[in-house]
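Hi support team,

I'm opening this ticket because the web form for multi-chain structure prediction keeps timing out on my end. I have pasted the exact lines I submitted so you can reproduce it. The total is 1201 residues across three entries, so I didn't expect it to be a heavy job. Is there a limit I'm missing, or should I split the entries? Thanks in advance, R.K.
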Amino acid sequence: MNTQFVGQPIRRVDGRLKVTGGARYAADFNLDEHVYAVIVNATVGLGRIVSIDQAAATRLPGVIAVISHLNAPRLAYHPHKGAIDPATGERLHVLQGDQVRFYGQPVAVVVADTLDQAERAAAALSITYAAKRPAVDPSASDTTEIMAEASKGPKAYYPADTARGDADAALATAPVRIDAFYDTARENHNPMEPHATVARWDGDRVTLWSKTQFVVNEQAEIAAIFGIPTENVQVISPFVGGGFGTTLRTWSHVTIAALAARQVGRPVKLALTRKQMFFTTGHRPRSLQRVALGATPDGKLTSIVHEGRGETSRYEEFIEALTAGTGFMYSCPNVRTQYRIVPLDTGTPNHMRGPGEAQGMFALECAMDELSYELGIDPIELRRRNEPEIDESTGKPFSSRSLMPCYDRGAELFGWAQRNPAPRSMRDDREYVGMGCASATYPVLFSPTRARARLLADGTAEIEVAASDMGPGTYTSMTQVAADALGLPLDNVRFSLGRSDFPPAPPHGGSQTMASVGSAIRAACAAVLEAAARNREVRPIEAEGSAQRDPEVAARFSMHSFGAVFAEVGIDSDVGTIRVRRALGVYGAGRIVNPRLALSQCTGGMVGGIGMALMERTMLDARDGRLVNAHMADYLMPVNLDIDRLEAHFVDEEDPHVNPLGVKGLGEIALVGMAPAIANAIFHATGTRLRNLPISIENVLTA
Amino acid sequence: MAVTPAVGTISAAAQDSSTMTDTLRISVNGTPHELTPDPRQSLLDVLRETLDLTGTKKGCNQGACGACTVLVDGKRVVSCLTLAAMHDGAEITTIEGLAKGGELHPLQTAFIEHDGLQCGFCTPGQIMSGVACIAEGHAGSPEEIRFWMSGNICRCGAYPGIVAAITDAAERA
Amino acid sequence: MLLFTLQKAGSPEDAIAAAQAGARYIAGGTTLIDLMREEVERPERLVDINALPLKDIRVEGEDLVFGALARMSEIAAHPDVLRLQPLVAESLIEGASPQLRNMASIGGNLLQRVRCPYFRMHDAACNKRQPGSGCTALDGLNGGHAILGTSEQCVATHPSDVAVAFVALDATMRVRGPDGERSFPVEELFRLPGDTPHLEHTLLPGELILEVRVPGGAHARQARYLKVRDRASYEFALVSAAAALEIEDGVIRTVRIACGGVGTKPWRMRACEQALIGRPPDRANLEAAAKLALEGTRPLAHNHYKIELLPRTIARALEMAGELA
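Hello R.K., no limit was hit. The queue was backed up. Here is the completed structure from your submission:
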C-alpha cells in the first residue's frame, strides 16, 4: 500500500472554507423566494389535541400557511427501515393525527415570509389538549422493563441475555465481591449546528439541503414517506456542524420541511431552535445498571454480572451496546449479561457518541476500580491479571488487541507510579487530588460502501461518495487515501461528499467512515486506474468500486479497538468544585491515517467524556414530561476553561484483518473510558464512591 | 414590570415617533448597507438572511454558545441578542471580512495550522472572539485564553487547538 | 417575538417621557431580547437609551461612580476599579461571557430577570409571569432555586453577580423619574417575592437608573468574589459570596459579606459580619460565623446541597479576601 500521504499530519483540506465562513451548512442555503417554517410543539407530555384555533395566527402579517393534522395531507409513510432505525416499531408519523406521545412533539408548522413572522405566528397558535400524566422516569414504579424484540435470541446483535458458566453461583461463592448500581443521565447530543432543512420542490421532485449523517437514508426515507420514487429526492449536505449521532436518523422536521414546501409551493427553510433539538432529535438514554464482580484474593475474576436497563419510546424499541463490552473485556469463566429497555412517553432515543459502550463501560470500569481497592491491587495490575487470550464470549481470537500496551504506555506517560494508592492521600494546596484510569473499547465496524473515481484530462481526479464529514475530517483523510491510491499529489484530488446522487455510504457513525468509505475509495481508484490503462485516450474516465467486510474474516476474528484512559482530578476541599487537571488516552486503533486530525478527534472525544462525567444531564419534570433545561445555558457542556491538559497517543498496531486500510476508527472510543476514569479519580481523591452521572458539586458535598 | 399585552393587540411598526428611524445604515466588512429591517430582527438574522453573510452561525439564539460572535465597532458581541435596528451607523466585522485580498488573517491561518476546529460550525465565532481576545490583551497565557474564550462553546472539543492557535497568533501579533 | 416600535432617546428627559407613555428601556438588551424571543417579555414600545450620556466611570474621593450605561466589560477593565474595587471587577468577569459583558449595561445587569426555567416557559404556571397562576418550581425541579427569601409564590434566585458585590459594599444608586431624582441603597432596589413576585424591584414607573456609586475604603480594596458552579465559566452561580475585609492588629475591623445563588435577591449576611467584628480571622472563627448564614434558610426538595455549600463558600471567600490561605 502506497502511504505517501496516509499516515501524514495533513492540514484539513476544507480548513480554509471553514475559517473564512465559506463552508455552507444546511441553514446557510438561501434560495430565491424562500420562506420560513417554524414548528409548534406539544406542551403536554401525553394525550391528544382537542382543538387548534389558528384564526389569530393566520391573520398575522406574512403568514402563508398553518399546517396541522387538521389540514395536512395524509402522507404515504411507506415502510422504511434504514440501517440506523430501531428494528421494532414505527417512526413518528408527523402531523397525521391528534395523538401526543411526548412533550415537545411537533403538532403544527407555520410558514411565513420572514422568520420573525413565522415565529410570532407559531407562538400565537392556540391549541388545547386532553392531557394524561406521562411516564418519563425509568426508575419509577409506573414503568415496566421489556426485552426488545431485536435483542431476543442468541443471534441478536445486542442480545438481551448472554451467559457463560454460572455467574450468579460463582458470585455467591467468590472470596471477594463487588456489587453496585450505577445510574447515568439522559444526555442530548447538542451539536453546535441546529438541525435544519431547506426544501424545494420542482414538480414531483424535491431537493433537500439538509443536515444529515446518512445522506442516502434521508433520501430513501423521504421518498418512502411521500410515496415518491427514491430518485425524485435529492439530498445535499456538504457540511455537518457536529452530529455525535443526532443526525443519523431523519427526524420529523425533515418531513415537515418537505411537506410545508409542497403545501406553499415555494422553497422553505426550517431550522430547529436549540430548545426544539431537545424534543425530537434523539438523546442518549439514561441507563440503570448493576455490575457485580467476584474475584479470588489474588485478583482473578471468577464472576461478572452486568444487568443494564435503557430507555426507549412507546413507539420504537431503541437498543444499543449497553452490555456488549462486558463479555470480552476480561478473562472470566462465569459471565452473565442482561439488557432490558423501559418504554417511556418520550421521543425515541438515538445513538450518541460511544452509544451503549459509554454507559456500559462506565459501570464495568468503575466496578473494576472498586474491586481493585477491595483487593488492594493496583487497578492496572488487576486488568493485567485478567487480560484474556481470546474473546471468551465468542471463542474467536482478537484480530488485534493492545489494551495492556495502551496501559503500559499510558502509565508511563501519565506518571501513574507517582500515585499514592491510598484514597484521599494526595493533596495540592486546597485540592484533594486523585488519579484514575479505565479501559475503553469499541467494535471495528465496516459496512458496504461504493465510491466513484474519475480521472480528468488535466491529470486531476475527482472522487465521489455520499458520505458525510461532521468534523473528524472525512474530506481530508479520503483525499489522502485517494491521492495515495492514484499516485497523485493531494492538490490534484478533489473529494466530494454529501450528495445522494453519489454512490452510497453507510451511516457516518459508529466510527466506520474511515474503514468503509476509505476502503471503497481505494477500490474505486484501483478500478479507474485499470480502466485508464485500458483506455489511454479516453478522458475523463470514471469507475466505481466497492468494499465490504469479508464474511470469512468476520467469522474468524473478534474485531475491536481498545484504549486506556487516565484522569487526574482536583476537588476543592471547601466547595467541592471538580476540575480535571489533566487527562491522557492511549489507543490501539490500527493505522492512524492522519495524526493531526486523530489527535484532535481523540482529545475532542475526551472533552465529551468530561461533559458526560461532570455536567451533562437532560432533566425531565415527571409531572408532565417537560424538558426543564432545554437551553444551551442550562444543559451544561464543557467550556474552554474546563479543559486543561489533554493528551492522546496511539500504540503501533497493524491489523490486516479489519479492512484493507487496517484502520479501526476513533470517533467513539475517544469518548468511552473518560467518564469512568474521572469517576475513579474522584474516588481516589475523596474516598467517596460516586456511581451516578453526572458527578456534580452537589454529589461531592452531600455524599 | 409592565403588564403584558394580550396576543393579537400588536402595535404595527408605525412611524409614530419623530425620533424613530426606519432606515438602518450599517457598514459590514467595509461595505455600506441601507436596510429597513423588521424591528424584531436580530443583527444575526440580518447578516444571515438579509445580507446572505452566512459565515456567522446561529448555534442557540440564546446568547449561550458564542457561534454568532461578530465585532461591532471593534468589540465582540453575540449578534443573536441584539437588534439590528439598534446599530445604525455601526461598523460590523464578520468572519467574511477578516481575510484581506485573499490573504488569511493570521488567526485564521493559525486555526488551520493547530487544527483548532473539527465540524467548523463554531469556528467563525471562535475566530472572531479570538481576534477580540488578542486585541483586548487577554491572550497572554493559555490559562488567560481559556478564561477569555469561555464564551464560545465547541462541542467537538477542539479547545486545545483553539488555545494553541490563539497563543500562536498572539505571539505573532 | 411580538412586534414593537423602537425609538431612540436623545436625552434622559426623552427617555423618561417615552417610558411614561408605556415604553420599556432597552440598553444592552441581552436579557430583554432573549425573553422577548420567548414572548415572556412583550413590550409594545422600546426606547433605546444607549445614546444617553450615562456611560462614564469616575472616581470621587474614595468612591467609584458608574454611569448606568457603562458596560460590564468597561467597568471590569477600568484601572481605578481594579485598584479601588477589585471585588466589583471580579464579580463582573465571573459573570456571563466576554461577549455578553461587552453588551450588558450595569443598570440592565441589576434589572436582569430570574433564570427559573419555568419562568421562561409559557406553558408552565408562574406567578411572576402571570400573577395567581401558581409556581411550578415549588414542587418541580428546583435544584437551582433559592433557600432564602422565598415565598409560596416564588422561589427563583436573583441571577446577578455584580449585584451581590454592590450589596456587600453598600453601593447606592441614583435614579431619575418624572418627579425628579432620588438615591437609595442598591440593596433596596430588590423586592422579596412575597405575594407579589411579579414586582421585582422598587423603581417607580418611568424611573431611569442614572448611576451606581460604590463607597471605597480599606475593606473594599481587600475584597474577593467566589462563584461556585459546576462549569468553570459561563454558568450562573450555585452559590456565590462577596467578601470584603479590613484586618487591623490581627483582628477584623471591617467586614462585608453578601451571597448570590441562595436568595430571591442578593443576600447580605449581616449576622455573619457581626460575629466577626473584633475577632481574629482564623479558620475556626470564619467557619463559625459563616454558619450563621443558614439562619432562616428553607431548602426545597432538590436544593439541600446549598445548605452545605453556603457556609463553605462564605468561609472560603473570607479567606480569599484576607489572603489568609
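A quick check on our side: Residues 224 and 462 of chain A are 31 Å apart (CA to CA). Let us know if the file doesn't open in your viewer.
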